[in-house]
TrEMBL record:
InterPro entries: Ala_racemase_N, PLP-binding_barrel, PyrdxlP_homeostasis. It holds the Pfam family Ala_racemase_N. This is Pyridoxal phosphate homeostasis protein. Residues 1-30 are annotated as: Disordered.
Length: 290
């Protein structure tokens, strides 16, 4: 506690980052503790720099330009203040290396709960960051989330595509989507099964408001690097097949694969977006308070 109070007095982390002022002054005791754990945690800037450097080294090792891989920070369970803190550190690093922040020209942060997206999009209004939904979406939540996110990475059924397109059309907006593919074959995983992926992808041309940008997968969670790499290769193989078959008017540019535990391996296997949470923000706390 003493250490925390010391840092609070200075208002700065060792990296020179100021915490988000409005959020701090408005916060109650619990929220302040939450903020200290996230945005103002003393090791946040160094974690962000470390991940950034690891992405760079993985690109170099794969003979790929640094700008060919987007680092998508996954902010679920972490505060809006943490998002802004990570965004600021990444801004300084990306500018130095001229790496574009994301497809929309501004940095997106990955989330997977609709309620959290609703809350955070209000908290982040006026800030130059956006949200991406990277997890499963139930059709009864489509109306709540459409219009709040700038990218949806977990499209995995025709029914969902139709419902989403109808809502987007009513709002007069379009949405960048990736098709989530279950490359591990695990029953518990979301995503369209490999065997049905091409058929689903073909049908997405029917929807005017869906901008189909590529594929996404969550690899098997295994210490066996070969098993994980096999998932990445399956996704890349599907991309090649979609291109060869000229499915839709898309080159299927995006391969979103790789998380904190396996993003370097994913880059070696062709990832264009890596979704990194824990390694940037620290551990997630799913509990209700402490
Ligand atoms: C939470 C999540 C991540 C990030 O996981 P970490 O292991 O914390 O990096 C990536 N992708 C999806 C789909 C997630 O839900």
């Amino acid at each position: 506690m003493a250490m925390i109070e010391d840092s609070a007095a200075s208002g700065e982390t060792p990296g020179g980052l100021r915490a988000d002022e409005p959020a701090r002054t408005a916060a109650g005791a619990d929220e302040v503790r939450q903020l200290w754990r996230g945005a103002v945690g003393t090791d946040l800037p160094s974690r962000v720099r470390d991940v950034w450097d690891r992405v760079g080294r993985a690109c170099a090792a794969a003979g790929r330009p640094r700008s060919s891989v987007r680092l998508l920070p996954v902010s679920k369970t972490h505060s809006a203040a943490s998002i802004l803190a990570v965004d600021r550190v990444l801004d300084t690093l990306a500018t130095r290396e001229e790496v574009p922040a994301g497809p929309a020209g501004r940095r997106l942060f990955g989330e997977n709960h609709v309620q959290e997206i609703v809350a955070k999009s209000a908290q982040l209004a006026g800030h130059d960051v956006g949200l991406a939904l990277i997890g499963h979406l139930q059709s009864n939540k489509v109306n709540a989330v459409a219009g709040l996110v700038e990218e949806f990475q977990a499209l995995d059924s025709l029914k969902l595509a139709a419902k989403l397109d109808r809502r987007l059309s009513a709002l007069g907006v379009s949405l960048r989507v990736l098709v989530e593919v279950n490359t591990s074959g695990e029953q518990a995983k979301h995503g369209v099964p490999m065997a049905e992926a091409t058929a689903l992808c073909r049908r997405l041309g029917d929807f005017d408001c869906l901008e189909v940008a590529g594929l996404m997968t969550v690899a098997v969670n295994s210490p066996d690097r070969h098993a994980v790499a096999a998932c990445f290769d399956r996704l890349a193989g599907l991309q090649t097949q979609l291109r060869d078959d000229a499915v839709l008017d898309s080159s299927w540019p995006e391969l979103s694969m790789g998380m904190s535990g396996d993003f370097e391996l994913a880059i070696a296997h062709g990832a264009t977006t890596v979704r990194v949470g824990t390694a940037l923000f620290g551990p997630r706390d799913y509990g209700q308070g402490d």
